[in-house]
Write a structure and sequence with these properties.
alpha/beta; Nucleotidyltransferase, domain 5; 5-stranded mixed sheet
Amino acid sequence: MAKVVVYTDGGASGNPGPGGYGAVMISGEHRKELSGAFRRTTNNRMELLAVIMALETLKNPGTDVTIYSDSKYVVDSVVKKWVFGWVKKNFKDKKNPDLWKRFLKIYAVHDVKFVWVKGHAGNELNEVADRLAVSAYQQGVLEVDEVYEATNKD
């Protein structure tokens, strides 16, 4: 089975504000870049959505995936198994349950490992993922993060 390495990043200007996600996926000689943006969202939603979009892009179940992320929110939630406790409590008082449920569905399909990397520290592919995310919300078409906007009237 092919091994896939993924670098993800997400960000928002204003938090909440316009935000975007970026991902760089590498498997052997193949490389794919993903990005998208929303008119009103948060940094954490975009960090998590970058991971989700990358995993949902994979065509073969059971793919061996290593995700590099500078998001302690995402990495710690999975590595420290917090998110699995949140499921048992139906995400009571937790943010982003819609995305966490979507994540868990695709996470179960693949063999996923997470590695935290320090952001803005010269890691080339983390920097590419960051540029993709920022460029998406600064220059791209801004979609509506319907769940966020419906539940956050701030």
